[in-house]
Automatic annotation (TrEMBL):
One of its GO terms (molecular function) is oxidoreductase activity. Gene3D superfamilies: NAD(P)-binding Rossmann-like Domain. Coiled coil: none annotated. It comes from Paracoccus amoyensis. This is SDR family oxidoreductase.
Length: 223
């Protein structure tokens, strides 16, 4: 696509962690608003189901079955966004590693390493890669808080999720007075996601807010 073509391209929304839960719901909601969705996740089946739903609703998506913990893959993705779309209008980051609940002294080292890699290091790396692309389109980056830090048995998830949000809030504060970039940090209500089911297996999921309803609330509030 040439530079002239970029000006006529649809708005591009990148959703990391798009195959299920809030990420999938945000992808569907963005597609109905005229965004072309770049859907990133490792689960190919979930991405294909998402694509089917988006197309049935009249939207469009590009599926990117990639591992966000692979720096080379993320670099290639960023280059493709620059070359094909000329920048990024929106990034919604929902990818997360939810380590099993455990007392602090019993947190598994491998789970801790996965949590710090995906929840903190990946976020740092993506911010560095995507900020220039967002600035080209006066874009918006969205992060989603889940304040479990300090709760018993939530050591790995709570600490690394809190660190992710602290990083996002620092970026938000640093860019608050700069034109061309908007950083959103939202705290969604409880939804019947796979992550929550792992944490609260006996919970009555019928009383939780559907992911689509919460995604609609978020998009209406910030777009």
């Amino acid at each position: 696509m040439s530079e002239a073509d970029h000006t006529n391209a649809p708005k591009l929304a990148l959703v990391t962690g798009a195959s299920r839960g809030l990420g999938a719901a945000l992808a569907e909601g963005l597609a109905t608003r005229g965004y072309h969705v770049l859907a990133v996740a490792r689960t190919v089946g979930g991405l294909e189901e998402l694509d089917d739903r988006i197309r049935r609703a009249g939207g469009s998506a590009t599926l990117a079955p990639m591992d966000v913990t692979n720096p080379e893959a993320m670099q290639q993705m960023a280059e493709a966004v620059a070359n094909r779309w000329g920048g990024l209008d929106l990034w919604a980051h929902t990818a997360i590693h939810a380590a099993p609940l455990a007392p602090a002294p019993q947190i598994d080292g491998k789970d801790w390493a996965k949590s710090t890699l995906l929840n903190i290091e990946v976020t740092r790396g993506l911010i560095a890669l995507l900020e220039p692309l967002l600035r080209l389109k006066n874009g918006t980056a969205m992060f989603f808080d889940d304040p479990q830090a300090g709760e018993k048995f939530f050591g790995a998830y709570g600490a690394t999720k809190a660190a992710q949000i602290a990083l996002a809030r620092s970026w938000q504060a640093e860019t608050a007075k700069l034109a061309g970039l908007k950083i959103v940090v939202d705290a969604p209500t409880s939804m019947p996601t796979a992550v929550r089911a792992r944490f609260y297996p006996g919970e009555d999921r019928a009383v939780l807010t559907p992911c689509k309803a919460e995604a609609e609330r978020i998009l209406q509030q910030y777009l």
